[in-house]
Amino acid sequence: MAYESVDYSEIGQGLIGFLLLLLIFGFRWALTFWRPWQPWKPWRQRFREYRAESWPTVEGLIVGGNVQRIPKSSRYLATLSYSYFAGGYEAGTYLRVFKREPEADDFVRQLRDRRVLVKYNERNPRKSVVENRTIDQLVALSPRFAKPS
After folding, report:
1. Which residues, other chains included, contact 30 with Cβ-Cβ below 8 Å and sequence gap of 6+?
2. Digit-coded pLDDT (tens) for 3-41
3. Phi, psi (deg, nearest 5) at residue 124
C-alpha cells in the first residue's frame, strides 16, 4: 500500500493567511463596535459606582459644565465638573448622554452651583464618583426637570 506524501507547507500558508485575516478583521471589528475607551458608556458608570460602594462620602459642589455632540452620533454629551474636599481640594467630572441638545443644556444649567454627594477613594482622593441616583435626585428636585405624577 502506497501513501501519498502531503505537502504541509501549503496547509500552513493557508492557515497563517486565515489567522492574519481573522486578526485584522477582528481588530477592526473591535475598534468599530466595541470602543471601550468611550467614557460615556453606561456600563463604565455602573462599574465605577460598584467599585465606589465602600468609599467615604463628602459634600461637593457642581462648579460648571458643558455640552458637546458625540462624534459620529446624533446624541449629546453633558459634562458636569464638580469639586470636593478630601484632605485637599479635588475635582471630578460626571457624564450623561442626551438625545437632544436643549435637554443637555437645561440639565447643565439647572445643576450648576448645586451641592452633590461625592464618593472618593481614601487611598487616592483624586479618584471620585458621583452616582447616577444622586444626580437623579437633584434632577427630581429641580422644578424644570420634575416629572409629572
Report:
1. none
2. 565 555 555 556 666 666 666 666 555 545 555 445 556
3. -140, 90
Task: State the first-to-last Cα distance of the chain, in angstroms, to the nearest integer.
Answer: 87
Cell numbers found for residue 48: 465605577
Domains of the chain, residue spans:
7-35, 42-141
Element containing residue 12 per DSSP (H, E):
helix 8-29
b/e per residue 54-79 (b: at least 16 CB within 10 A): ebeebebebeebebeeeeeeeebbbb
Q: Give the predicted TM-score (pTM) of the model.
A: 0.69
For residue 132 the three cell numbers come to 447616577
**Measured distance CA(24)–CA(58) in Å, rounded:** 47
| pLDDT cut 90: percent of the chain above it | 51
